From TrEMBL:
GO BP of this protein: phenylacetate catabolic process
Stretch forming the signal peptide: none
Protein name: Phenylacetate-CoA oxygenase subunit PaaA
InterPro entries assigned: Aromatic_CoA_ox/epox, Ferritin-like, Ferritin-like_SF, PaaA, PaaA_PaaC
Domain of life of the source: Bacteria
A molecular-function term among this protein's GO annotations: phenylacetyl-CoA 1,2-epoxidase activity
Gene Ontology CC terms: cytosol
Length: 365
């Protein structure tokens, strides 16, 4: 039975996190209705006010947990940070289609194929929401795609690892989408409105992704000994790269403090990584699989699990382009972009023609 062969939806792997997404959505609606701090007037006019007044107002909006919107004044560094982060996120969604796309034609049944197709299509959709959110900051999608294929902007290091078996599709859903959710749920409360709203939609879909991955692994882990071994091998290979998805440890993280002050980021890399570990331990138990860390154990004092850190030197190598699949991923993306040129040209020609006709109609009327 699909979706019900492990604890019911309320206790499912992402039940708590989904609750947080819903709370963030409610807070967003609330914030839209609430006035800024009492006694504060309307936003200063960017054309007339000096920078200190504008900055003051920007800070008060963030302090009041209101959203910064595209037409609002914002410091250049806030805009640049958001463009970098949202673009990197959008690129990750698009490049992330490749490792799993690799298994669409080899999924073990029609049903598995349909589910995987839907999942990979969702990732394309996430890329589109996010490129659209980045465009509200004054950069075009063309520029962003250019920066990706020229290697001037990054995407998540995790997608530079190969998918060697069908179980990898399960491990990606469970661990990679799982880590993505833990990272992204707090972004539903990000101070930049378009990003926060995109993240609410993305997180709801990601929870389906995590669930489908969990279910694939659950079936394999309860199948033949060979299937269980395949599932275990996948978890062994994906565990540490998934932990590395949260980025370098807080002591080495360049962007954390400022992003937290701007309420773009709400938790540090290490806090989120810890949360992910604690969540996975319980779920691995339900799966009947082992997390490949002999030092993983509950720490009563910290009320959290102690665990082995991923190899951050490896993370840096992969980020710099030396992961197992970096070259393939970018080469594939370049090819797909070139192959799609005629579609973009045709769409642009169609839009121009439509605009021309509308103009003619206006003149005639
Ligand atoms: Fe996604
Ligand atoms: Fe996903």
């Amino acid at each position: 039975m699909y979706g019900n062969d492990f604890p019911g939806p309320d206790q499912g792997p992402t039940a708590g996190l989904l609750g947080e997404v819903e709370a963030a959505e409610a807070a967003l609606r609330d914030a839209a209705r609430r006035d800024l701090q009492a006694g504060r007037g309307a936003a200063p006019d960017p054309a007339g006010a000096d920078e200190a007044t504008l900055h003051d107002y920007f800070t008060s909006v963030i302090a009041a947990d209101q959203k910064i919107e595209p037409r609002d004044w914002m410091p250049d560094s806030y805009r640049k940070t958001l463009i970098r982060q949202i673009a990197q996120h959008a690129h990750s969604e698009i490049i992330g289609m490749q490792p799993e796309g690799n298994w669409i034609s080899r999924a073990p049944s029609l049903k598995r194929k349909a589910i995987l197709l839907a999942k990979v299509q969702d990732e394309a959709g996430h890329g589109l929401y996010l490129y659209a959110a980045a465009e509200t900051l004054g950069i075009s999608r063309d520029e962003l795609v250019e920066m990706l294929i020229e290697g001037r902007q990054k995407y998540s290091s995790i997608f530079n690892y190969p998918t060697l078996s069908w179980a990898d599709v399960g491990a990606i859903g469970w661990l990679v989408d799982g880590a993505a959710i833990v990272n992204q749920v707090p972004l539903c409360r990000c101070s930049y409105g378009p990003y926060a709203r995109a993240m609410i939609r993305v997180c709801k879909e990601e929870s389906f992704h995590q669930r489908q991955g969990f279910e694939i692994l659950h079936v394999l882990a309860h199948g033949t000994p060979a299937q269980k071994a395949m599932a275990q091998d996948s978890v062994d290979r994906w565990w540490y790269p998934s932990l590395a998805m949260f980025g370098p440890p807080d002591t080495d993280s360049a962007h954390t403090a400022q992003s937290m002050a701007w309420k773009i980021k709400r938790f540090s890399n290490d806090e989120l990584r810890q949360r992910f570990v604690d969540m996975c331990v319980q779920q691995a138990d339900v799966l009947g699989l082992t997390l490949p860390d002999p030092d993983l154990r509950w720490n009563d004092d910290r009320q959290a699990h102690d665990y082995t850190q991923p190899d951050y030197a490896e993370l840096m190598r992969v980020i710099k382009g030396e992961g197992p699949c970096n070259r393939d991923r970018i080469a594939h993306r370049r090819r797909a972009h070139a192959d799609g040129a005629w579609v973009r040209d045709a769409a642009a020609a169609y839009a121009a023609k439509q605009a021309e006709r509308q103009e003619e109609r206006k003149v005639a009327a």
